[in-house]
Write a structure and sequence with these properties.
Blueprint (H helix, E strand, L loop, with lengths): L1 E2 L4 E2 L12 H14 L1 H26 L5 H20 L1 H25 L16 H14 L2 H10 L4 H15 L2 H14 L3 H19 L2 H7 L7 H39 L3 H13 L4 H23 L2 H6 L5
Antiparallel strand pairs: 1-2
Helix pairs in contact: 2-3, 3-4, 4-7, 6-11, 7-11, 9-11, 11-12, 11-13
Keywords: Membrane, Transmembrane, Transmembrane helix
Protein name: Peptide-N4-(N-acetyl-beta-glucosaminyl) asparagine amidase A
């Protein structure tokens, strides 16, 4: 159902708004991509520079020649994109979402396969205390590429309707059973007590759920404890990726795009569209209670998905002899 007076799609799709006029939507998407051309030039140049420095500092001294794949991928991808920006600007604008999405997925998968650059133990069997736990989880979050996946989406933003698919493919690739199995092997190499720490994290989640959810719902989403080691790892990994790599950057991108659409509608002198966008914002504006409820709902949904995956053949494959 469309708000014809406003000229925008008034369906209750939250952040996935689109102008109902095809011409207006195409003009907005083109303006969105065009406004990011200078930043794209800078970011692609920085990618090549940072990867070159990384290879010189890490790959050569430690003999990690497999890291050359990451350098080669990003150098070639950045060179192609820079060439399109310089010589075929129209082609780049038409296919920017696809190109950025492919670069994101390729960079993420190769990065996962060359991590860690210099495997240094993060804990010993007898390491305890909050500082040891903090160090362990920092290394794990970085090793899972959680911050980098989110930062990539924010630094090279796409229209939200494209960003959803790009992030979904990237996060889905990170959760593939072979990737999860490899990352678990790395975790155990870096910390022999990794499985126990993941199971403790599951216990903390269970405790939190019993405190914030009504009993019938809490019983439904509670995770059996202790879980098989691979299942606990996969559950926590899935939660991290769903919440931090997928949901949070998309919420941030949606907010930015809403502001950009407001500016575009004002530039078109379309007061009805501006008013309709503001009405949509009012409908989706959340107070502290609503944000708490939404966070709990996302947490529970992620937990249910992760639990199902962890107890299925995915966990069985991830558990396939990590020694």
């Amino acid at each position: 159902m469309y708000d014809k007076a406003a000229g925008i799609d008034a369906m209750p799709l939250g952040p996935l708004l689109a102008f109902s006029s095809g011409a207006h939507e195409a003009a907005f998407v083109r303006r969105f991509h065009t406004a990011r051309l200078p930043a794209d030039l800078f970011n692609f140049s920085m990618v090549m520079t940072c990867n070159l420095a990384l290879v010189l500092l890490k790959m050569v001294p430690h003999g990690r020649w497999d890291s050359a794949a990451l350098l080669l991928h990003d150098a070639l991808a950045s060179a192609v994109l820079l060439g399109l920006l310089q010589g075929r600007r129209e082609a780049y604008l038409c296919h920017r979402s696809l190109l950025i999405g492919m670069l994101h997925v390729g960079h993420t998968m190769i990065s996962m396969h060359v991590q860690p650059m210099s495997p240094t133990p993060t804990c010993s069997p007898d390491s305890t205390g909050p500082l040891a736990a903090l160090r362990f989880w920092i290394v794990e979050v970085l090793g899972q590429l959680v911050p980098w996946t989110a930062v990539f989406a924010c630094v090279l933003p796409l229209p939200i309707k494209h960003a959803v698919w790009s992030q979904a493919v990237t996060v889905g690739a990170l959760l593939l059973p072979p990737v999860a199995a490899r990352r678990r092997r790395v975790s155990l190499q870096l910390c022999p007590t990794a499985d126990a720490r993941y199971n403790r994290a599951v216990a903390v989640l269970n405790t939190a759920l019993t405190m914030v959810l009504p009993p019938p719902m809490a019983v439904w989403v509670l995770t059996p404890h202790p879980l098989p080691d691979a299942a606990a790892f996969y559950l926590i990994t899935t939660l991290m990726q769903l919440l931090a790599s997928f949901a949070l950057p998309l919420l941030w991108l949606a907010r930015r795009e809403w502001r950009a659409r407001i500016q575009f509608a004002r530039g078109q002198r379309d007061a009805a569209a501006v008013a309709s966008l503001h009405r949509q914002a009012q409908q989706w504006r959340l107070g502290p209670i609503e944000w708490t409820a939404l966070s709990a709902a996302l947490w529970c949904i992620g937990l249910c998905i992760a639990r199902t995956a962890a107890q299925s053949r995915w966990a069985a494959l991830a558990a396939d002899n990590v020694t």
